[in-house]
Amino acid sequence: MLHTVLKQFGFEGDDCKTEPFGNGLIHSTWLVENKKKKYILQRINNQVFLYPEDISFNIKLISDHLKVHFPGYLFAESLPAIDGSNLVKVSEGYFRMFPFIEGSHTIDIIEKPEQAYQAAKQFGRFTMLLSDLDVSLLKITLPDFHDLTLRYRQFENALLHGNKGRILQSKDLITLIKQQQYLVAEYEYCKLHFKIRCTHHDTKISNVLLDDNNKGLCVIDLDTVMPGYFISDVGDMMRTYLSQVSEEEKDFSKIEIRNEIYQAIVNGYMSEMGAELSDLEIKHFSFAGKMMTYMQAIRFLTDHINDDVYYGAKYDGHNFIRARNQITLLKKMQDFNFG
Fold this sequence. Notes:
The chain has about 350 residues and is of the alpha+beta class. Helix content is about 45%, strand content about 10%.
């Protein structure tokens, strides 16, 4: 399979070697190396992204904009195949290739404030540099991805039609989620008043390339780049950076808000986006983390009630534990003085 794909990207015979690369859960990724350079080959999961061509369209649109207005910005654009297209389709799916950025690396866990600062700065810079792009031209690659109102409706539907035993077992958690419904109304208010921007929508730390001195180079994994609100990017950083443990942690006593990490997110993002955000948007900076954490709690519990049809489960009650984890994080955020 890979031999056929690589041939369409101009690789012949045994002039290169391939090996699995990274730990991504959505796409399959390989490191490709020949005598001259290294490359990243990726198979797009078209069960998640139903229209891979839309991803390629967005990346090309963004690349063209940056080349004209910010030619010095490092942007990992996909490489063309022999026929000039940025996607190769074979019976096994859709494939694309990127240059491997020498001297770069990623990390999976935020351990120091400087890491959070560098990441927030890069995500802020990405949106800032694209502030003049006509976002209406961007394709929607994951419809309603961060629509809190829709996620709450899906939760309510699960309560009507989901697993009755799991609903009964989740009674206390369901009550906690219902008590926070005011966040949905606040989200709807934000939609009326916030500017729609080109946002990344998946701002985990592993989506930032760092150099050998651990300084940010650029953001990667642009499949979820769509029109959206700044609270999606800031909120996802807060949700995944603030606590030293992940959404998989079962010992909820370990979930704490690290103030120095929060300040690093603020300083990094605002160093690029401070002049772009309105006073109302800045006022909602901490709301972003609450909104995204609440939404993820809803999604996990909804999936638990629906018998784990979306996320799946590695053990019985996996998504129930994840939902409790995120509600615990939300309560920590609500009790924390963000200042």
